[in-house]
Amino acid sequence: MQNYRANIMMCAGTGCVACNALKVKDALVDELKKQGLENEIQIVLTGCNGFCSNAPIMSVQPEGIFYQKLKIEDIPLIVEEHLLKGRPVEKLMYREPEAKTSVPLMNDIPFFKLQVLRALRNKGMIDPENIEDYISRDGYQGTAKALLELTPEEIIKIMKDSGLRGRGGAGFPTGLKWEFCSKVISDTKYILCNGDEGDPGAFMDRSVMEADPHVVLEGMIIAGKAIGATKGYIYVRAEYPLAVKRLQLAIDQAKEAGLLGDNILNSGFSLDIEIYLGSGAFVCGEETALMRSLEGKRGMPRPRPPFPAFKGLWDKPTVLNNVETYANVPQIIINGADWFKQLGTPKSTGTKVFALTGAINNIGLIEVPMGIPLRTVIFDIGGGIKKGRKYKAVQLGGPSGGCIPESLLDTPVDYESINATGAIVGSGGMVVMDDTNCMVNVAKFFLEFTADESCGKCPPCRIGTKVMLDKLIDITEGRGKESDIDLLLDLSHDIINTSLCGLGQTAPNPILTTIKYFKHEYESHIIDGWCKSGVCKELSTFYIDPELCKGCGLCLKACPKGAITGEKKQPHKIDNDLCIKCRSCYIACPAKFGALKIGPGNMFAQSKK
Ligand SMILES: Cc1cc2nc3c(=O)[nH]c(=O)nc-3n(C[C@H](O)[C@H](O)[C@H](O)COP(=O)(O)O)c2cc1C
Ligand code: SF4
Ligand code: SF4
Ligand code: SF4
Ligand code: FES
Fold first, then answer.
1. How sure is the predictor about 607, in pLDDT bands with cuts at 50, 70 and 90?
2. Phi, psi (5° rounding) for residue 432?
């Protein structure tokens, strides 16, 4: 094996590839050759490193210098200055928003510093297409231990003691699920991996599958031994082609190495794993629907019991776990339950991966100990709200999650504490919203999604989500009635209590939490005809406060309709007859001036009277 002076870890995750990472890599290959460094410096293409908002990125190891937002033109400078002369290039490093100094080392950047990597421990550190890279970082040691040293009962005991709860949304204890299934007597059992990841904005599972596919296989092999399964399927949505490619490569490599297939590591245990492509229906993430879909039928949930541990795929005992859940398993087996419990809270042990997105400076994927305050996640790791705007809420748990207001920002991120707010940890989507978001509109957005994705099998969900959506549309378009708020609350509770599956049972959460914490916004829409964030067009009028306007002209430049006039350094004005209420001016006006104001929808009509 060749030794290199330095390794350049180039992110080739979906986000970086979309930002030209592969062309930057080609330029790097050429430049290293030009400078005669190709035998001294190795380029490793990795999966998503997590800091996607700064794509494309790379780190130079072993020292850990981090470069971001790279362009092809930057490459000769990095090679000449850093790799030849040993002078890292400051201008391509990370800089704190509004700070003057750069942060050279990846682990000193706040985004990375407060994270603890377990499920994502290999992200950015290995070539996911090379099994040797994986093996060099403890890969398949958990499998070896589980298959050669432990009985199924011992594996299950470690998993139960660890307290690991399923990361796919419901947070059900993983060891307990395995125990139920292990006790059922059957000639055939199945082990399934849920890589459907239907939540909009979420990409935790995709990243694990792309950056570290072998860890998923390992988790399934260990679970397979625990329950006595001989066949496994990974259900991945077809929109994840890179994840599918890398998983298939990993399966092929593991089989060739005797780590998957017949008589793994001569242990007497055999497991075959296949990938199954889902076509992207949200409801197919629900476990019973997923199994139907795998059987080649229409993916629709069925009542439970019987639970899949007893009657699952093709009516055989089956365990289904999420990608991130499996990614935790090998390290738990290697290091033990106590090690896992060192992080987190007593009831929510370990770490959780979150996809941080929305109105936040550092968008990307993070892994943090359970119990960390939301404020730390949003302001320290996430770098706070973009453009100096004001935090309004964070939507946690995807379309069936809830919105958490500023007053609850110190809530610890664990299953119990988040549930107490009305939101859910869910699979880990975290969408941060600032003061330009309208919470009624946010509820409408999520209801549009759930109403659209309802499979239609049971009336409360099929009809109820549609009726609630229609009410929300009415409110955002100025036809709301005061009684609508109570109607929405009543309907929410009915739908939660009578729907067949988790989709209907959680769909009202965005409505319930926005009414709980932002009822004044509903009232303002209905009673005053005023959407104070300017999102609902019928209920907004844009105007400029001449006292506050600095005449900087940013709004004028942003306006697509030429509705704004004004001289430099003089107060500007909006012609409401031309204005189409696109909000571009409102977003463009610097928060420190705050000169662009929003009045009620009928404000102009009133002022004419
Ligand atoms: C509508 C709906 C969609 C779901 N989508 C997913 C999904 O995309 N990925 C996932 O892992 N779990 C999803 N779940 C949860 C799964 O049904 C199941 O509980 C989970 O995969 C079990 O794995 P875990 O115990 O490791 O979390 C969904 C549940 C519902 C009700
Ligand atoms: S709750 Fe909704 S998604 Fe679930 S089975 Fe009923 S109609 Fe289908
Ligand atoms: S809301 Fe849009 S159209 Fe209206 S003034 Fe502002 S930028 Fe122009
Ligand atoms: S962006 Fe704001 S401060 Fe600048 S001209 Fe427009 S309203 Fe005035
Ligand atoms: S894809 Fe490169 S950092 Fe996420």
1. low
2. -90, 135
* For residue 609, pLDDT beyond 50: no
Q: Which ligand approaches the C-alpha of residue 318 most closely?
A: 1
Please tell me the residue having the least CA distance from ligand 2 atom 6: 458
List, chain by chain if needed, residues with CB within 6 Å of any ligand 5 atom: 11, 13-16, 48-52, 55, 57
Most confident of 277-281, 366-370, 590-594: 366-370
Could you give the C-alpha distances from 281 to 200, 329, 333, 448, 519, in angstroms and in order?
12, 28, 34, 14, 32
Structure token pair of residue 9: 């870890």
The answer for residues whose C-beta is within 8 angstroms of residue 132's C-beta and 6 or more apart is: none
Q: From CA 446, how far away is CA 401, in angstroms rounded?
A: 9
In this structure, is the dihedral angle defined by the CA atoms of residues 106, 109, 111 and 117, taken in order, positive or negative? positive
pLDDT value at residue 426? 87
Is it the case that residue 458 has pLDDT exceeding 50? yes
**Residue 394: C-alpha distances to residues 102, 356, 402, 429 (Å):** 29, 10, 8, 10
Confidence of residue 168 (pLDDT cuts 50, 70, 90): very high
**281 CB-side CA count, 13 A:** 20
Amino acid symbol at 182: S
The SS3 call for residue 404 is: strand
CA distance 511 to 376: 26
Quick one: angle between helices 213-227 and 174-182, nearest 10?
Answer: 40
Q: Is residue 331 predicted with pLDDT exceeding 80?
A: yes
Whole-model pTM?
Answer: 0.94
Q: Which two tokens stand for residue 89?
A: 């290039």
Kindly provide the b/e burial profile for residues 474-491, where b requires at least 16 CB atoms within 10 angstroms of the residue's own CB.
ebbebebeeebbeebeeb
Q: Which two tokens stand for residue 297?
A: 């039928």
Confirm or reject: Cβ of 549 under 6 Å from ligand 4.
Answer: yes
pLDDT greater than 60 at residue 380: yes
Closest atom, ligand 3, to C-alpha of 586: 6
